[in-house]
């Protein structure tokens, strides 16, 4: 009958509307899930970027610290070199002074030897002169 046909058409239309509503609901949920997934990825990337930025800052500080230590070490090396040069200079001066002192000691020994020889000669001459007078 006409009424059955209308009911069937209404039910078909109703089922179709329900399917569309379900499809829309599924699409909406899929879009929400996709948005949530994108948001999660974005937060992960942001967190990763923050960690990398922090790592870069730490590396920069580490490099600065190393540069400072390197400069301090360089200054200490220069100071040590200056001290070392001064020590070498002093050692050289001491060696020269020691050499001069030995030369002077040698001169003094030669003069003493000559003086002793002269004294021996003059005393033997004096003895000789004295014995002649007595005779």
Reported for the largest beta sheet, the result is: none
Provide the residue-averaged pLDDT.
92
> What proportion strand?
under 5%
Order of helices and strands, N to C?
H
Number of strands: 0
- Structural class estimated from helices and strands: mainly alpha
What is the first-to-last residue Cα distance?
196 Å
Unreliable residue stretches:
none
Q: How many helical stretches? A: 1
- Give the fraction of residues assigned to helices: over 70%
Topology:
Elements: H1 2-134
Please give a quick description of this structure.
With 135 residues, the chain is mainly α.
Word description of this protein:
This protein is mainly alpha-helical and 135 residues long. The chain is 99% helix and 0% strand. The longest helix is centred in the middle third of the chain and has 133 residues, at 2-134. The model has no long low-confidence stretch (mean pLDDT 92).
Features of this protein?
135 residues; single chain; 0% strand; mainly alpha
